[in-house]
Amino acid sequence: MLVHLAQLSDMHVVAEGTDEVLYVDNNGRAAAAVAAIVDESPAMDAVLATGDLTQWGSDAEYDQLAEVIAPLDVPILPIPGNHDTRAGLRRCFPEHPWPSGDGHLSWVVEVEGVRIIGLDTTIPGEPGALFDPGREEWLRTALSNPHAGPTLLAMHHPPFATGIDWMDAAGFVGLDRFVSVVADVHVDRIICGHMHRPMSSMVAGVPAEVGISTAVHVALDLAPDGPLQVIRDPAGYRIWRIDGNAIVAHTRYVDTGETPFTPAWSEIS
Ligand SMILES: [Fe+2]
Ligand SMILES: [Fe+2]
Question: pLDDT at position 268, please?
């Protein structure tokens, strides 16, 4: 079993003609990432979108998102972010196996033997995360079903403090509850978004990774109470290469003007 997943994160797609100041071309950078994913060889088996697919969750933004992602001809697995709306995601991805009811939009999908759990950590209208007893019960039930292959747990908010204080300040209610669930079950990777820059950590012994955003990035400032600042770092996406239980995450940058070339010293290496 060899599976390739692309991870798009925090595209923050906006409506055509928006006058919002974004500092980068959100739609253009997301479209460039989509084009690069389409060109990947080997081809991607699915695309995981780890939240904040749109800027404000309006119908016009989801219509624009549908246009941006239209070139993708593999399953798109959307995780709700704090900038999304549940109704908007349901409307934009009608084929996705969303749960019934009005609650959190968590789901389980299998891609070529890889179990992917999409955990909705959002609180409608708020920036922070929530893992309440209902979500604990849902997650424990989802993970109690036996599965022979690897399990990826995807969620928008990272379940760890990152050290970028103004982002961490939004909070993660129920973080201890989440960590104790992960300690009790088998999960191979935790895959997140929200932070608008790549980072890695460990949660109850499980590697936890934050994907790179296609929108403007959060500035790297680890000073206590550091200011809210952004930076126009290169856009990109991650590629998860899953070969049985051997899981590697790569980062692809897009729109840098660079292409691979053979260096002059290749013959002596
Ligand atoms: Fe975001
Ligand atoms: Fe977010």
Answer: 67
